[in-house]
Automatic annotation (TrEMBL):
Pfam families: Transp_cyt_pur (PF02133). Belongs to the purine-cytosine permease (2.A.39) family. It comes from the Bacteria. It is a multi-pass membrane protein. This is Nitrate reductase. Gene3D superfamilies: Hydantoin permease (1.10.4160.10).
Amino acid sequence: MAVNVENNEDLARYNQDIAPTTQEQRQWSLYNYLSLWIGMAHNIPTYLMAGGFIVLGLNWWEAILTVFVGNMIVLVPILLNAHPGTKYGIPFPVLARASFGVVGAGIPAFLRALVGAGWFGIETAIGGQAIQTFLLMIIPGWAHFSDVFSFVGMNLGGWISFLLFWLMNVWIIYHGIQAVRRFEAWAGPLVLLLGIGLLIWALNAAHGFGPLLQRPATVHGTAFWAVEIPALTSVVGFWATLSLNIPDFTRFAKSQQAQEWGQAIGLPLTMTIFSGIGVLVTSATIVVFHHAISDPITLLGHFHNVVILIIALGAVVVATLSVNVAANIVSPAYDLIQLFPKHLNFARGGLITGILGIVMVPWLLISNPHIYIFTWLDVYSGFLGPIAAILIADYWVFRRRTLEVIQLYEASGQYYYKNGYNPLAIWALAAGILVSLIGKVVPPLVWLFNYSWFVGFAVSFGVYLVLMNAKYHNPTPSREMPSSHLSH
């Protein structure tokens, strides 16, 4: 559904990279969405997640079940926000204009971009570690050369490896969104083969899957729920980012069925399988090495066959590159375009995301696994849950799936609200963030923080609908709200 820009000087927030997709651009099939999720879900943080839950006291099947349930929950907002992307061909920052205002959409876009840049930096640090491990194994003297100086907590070898992986990401993004589609189509299955290979090794080396499967849970009753709820919130928070910006991908879908079935199969199934692989392989390392090795890059460092090591580390690099490009560059690039539509395009937005990922010194963040996996996920869940709620409440309940597309790009009309901002959406967002995160600083309310995504979602969803219906007195806004003479 293309926007006719001829003789329309009112399209102040228009940019070709965030324009509605044409029929020719809609090439993504069910397989593309399936491989997209395989590529994004099969990554190092997924591998580590279930192992982290076991450290907290869950047994192996409780940890894997938590991953499955959490992904089934987050699949709901993902599919709900995916629908307008396919129906109207618009990305997340443009969809957000319907509820936050043509200019005000910059608020959720900026918050999403910051989280995406943080994740980009984290995944780039992980990919850099894999390259560093590879260089240490194949280049004599690399350890001595790379340790000559340290800057901001990382030595020269670490910086070289980090920047090499950083450049790989930027190279792909500079070739456009269709390059992402082509890369994900073959990268996803390759990553799955790596996981299966590790699983076969674990079964043979340990003559089974080790003692971890016989280990009982160490938390029960009230103590169990004190662990389970934050863990479940962390799983939901893991893909809370994609629950917002999934329209960035579904705008290229051939049909609603293609994206719905591709995602419904791809997300929960692949996340659960790869988390299970992480638990089983970690259990086997106890037998083989007499201590648990939960980091697959560290585990690969124990292999002495150079050919196997090269193949395995190459797969780790591809795995990390796969999730980083799709989940952590594409969407922040679109988000930044929302802020500066006249000056940024897709490639420039991706480059800025990459620079922000360096500035956020992610290698220091992942040096503490507890902060990395739990505090990081739960805190930003308190920001992103409310945004998802407002988008869903506006599109599915308030507007009943009806948008006037061209007005999403205009400096007038029903989505311009007050100077481009919808104050009611901003109030609803602030209420959700406040209630979801207050437990982080007020100990008696810590239970609210443990449910941060759920609490923030519920509060913002209710507040937004109450305020909007009170002001416009009608759940079908086109009858009450100011409207332009233009339509899609």
